Amino acid sequence: MKQNNVLYQHGTLALLVPGLLAGTITMKELLQHGDTGIGTGEGLNGELIILDGVPYQADSFGNVHVVKDDFTMPFANINFAAFKFLTTLENAGPEEFAAAALRGKTNANTFFAVRVKGRFSYVRTRAVVKSEPPFDTLEETAKKQSIFEAHDVEGTLLSYYSPTLFHGAAVAGFHNHFLTNDHSMGGHVLDFKLASGELAIQTFDTLEQHLPVNNSEFMEHDFSQDNVADVISKAE
Question: Can you state which reaction this protein catalyses (predicted)?
Fold first, then answer.
């Protein structure tokens, strides 16, 4: 039975900080928990966006692929889509988007997803170059990234909002990924300007946190030595 109130998360952003970038869940396994989501591949291999059950990867070369069932990830969010229309937006950047999604509040204390479909006058995204073992830290790996820009494109922005009290498990605030309708461009969103589009929202009352307990590096790592909060804020 599909549970539309549940956000399923594999891994945490905290485990990426010291460079625990091994893929610990397959796409086939992840898709058992939803049809909509975001994530990254092993070694921070590109940026993922899952729409209507199809997993797309925007890689560091500027290509967008549909990944196979055996593609592995250290971190991903996924849910079964049950978005409800909230509002239309015009000439909106990140601040206007956030204000609309938060309904004018400065923060929220629950997880929710936001989907914006429309025409974007400008989008700037990034995709990290795949790292190979032995993996560098998140901060070092994230420096090796490609930046992409697009103008006047139609697409979908998919965002997950995490409350401040969960910073470390996820990034506090909005985590935005994007894909054009023609699949020519995507990635982790750095900036955007929405010309016009519809914003829909889905609120979760349950976070199902799945940890890679079969990965010895994760199980044995001492996170007390890592500056988790600051590194995540800087990298994201």
Answer: (2S)-2-acetolactate + H(+) = (R)-acetoin + CO2
d(CA 202, CA 83): 5
Q: How many domains does the chain have?
A: 1
Q: Report whether pLDDT(166) > 90.
A: no
pLDDT of residue 202: 98
Burial 71-96 (b: 16+ CB within 10 A, else e): bbbbbbbbbbbebeebeebeebebee
In a domain, 1, yes or no: no
Residue listed under structure tokens 């015009």: 90
Ranges 50-54, 69-73, 169-173: which has the least confidence: 169-173
CATH of the domain at 34: 3.30.1330.80
Range of the domain at 35: 6-235
Q: What is the pTM of this model?
A: 0.96
Q: Who contacts 147 (Cβ-Cβ below 8 Å, separation ≥6)?
A: 124, 125, 126, 190
Q: Say how far apart CA 27 and CA 78 lie, in whole Å.
A: 11
The answer to the question of residue 24 being in a domain is: yes
Residue 115, pLDDT above cutoff 90:
yes
Q: Cβ(60)–Cβ(130) under 8 Å? A: yes
Q: How confident is the model at residue 168 (pLDDT cuts 50, 70, 90)?
A: confident
